[in-house]
Amino acid sequence: AIRMTQSPSSFSASTGDRVTITCRASQGISSYLAWYQQKPGKAPKLLIYAASTLQSGVPSRFSGSGSGTDFTLTITCLQSEDFATYYCQQYYTYPPTFGGGTKVEIK
Amino acid sequence: EVQLVESGGVVVQPGGSLRLSCAASGFTFDDYAMHWVRQAPGKGLEWVSLISWDAGSTYYVDSVNGRFTISRDNSKNSLYLQMNSLRAEDTALYYCAKDTVRYGSGSYPDFWGQGTLVTVSS
After folding, report:
1. Cis peptide before A44 (omega within 30 of 0)
2. Which of A73, B10, B52, B111 has the most CB atoms at less than 10 Å from its CB?
3. pLDDT (tens digit, 9 = 90+) per residue, A47-99?
4. What is the distance between the alpha carbons of residues A62 and B86, in angstroms, rounded to a whole number?
């Protein structure tokens, strides 16, 4: 199975900050990558698919980039509602696999 | 509005069986593949299984292959997960999730239910 490694696993940030989360695949996955946001006690929410395409209704402060093995999720001007855990997922091949998650906490 | 409502999660003994259900509404159910994804308490997400729109194709993660069976009833807009030979490590919140295409190949879940909790313990 393809291993997805996210970094960092957690960090603290302030409202208004620009934050970047990294996801690395153990082998090339082209652009078959999605990003999800999960808040405590809630289901994951799709933010980005195909590495850089914003899901309908997701604020434009979220953006994704990368292809092959290295990907990033960037949140410009962090808002209070963005404090959550973020997961990347490859869907290049079965089984689909998730990164371990990155928890964004309030500084 | 897309809605996915899971049910059937309970406390079960190791070696036991359980059937989870997911009731779908707000979209044309038989136009999409469907997933089960689980999350152990305090842990990350783990994909479990996928079924194509017509149940003609199914996929499983290795750790459940041979023990779990995914199925669907398009006439009832429902997805199921039959879980046998349950182990402590199957303890998790199980999410039902909708895919974006019929076969699920090269695609991803775009909408998730709220989950149902399965606890395997003696």
Report:
1. no
2. A73
3. 999 999 999 999 999 999 999 999 999 999 999 999 999 999 999 999 999 99
4. 39
| Residue-level length of chain A | 107
Report the gap between the CA of A19 and the closest CA in chain B (Å): 21
- B105/B103 Cα distance (integer angstroms): 6
DSSP A10-50: EEEE-TT--EEEEEEESS--TT-EEEEEE-TTS--EEEEET
Q: Look up residue B1 and give its two tokens.
A: 């509005």
Which residue is listed with tokens 């957690």? A10
Please check whether residue B115 touches A, CB under 8 A. yes
Number of Cβ within a 10 Å radius of residue B23? 16
CB B48 within 8 A of CB B29: no
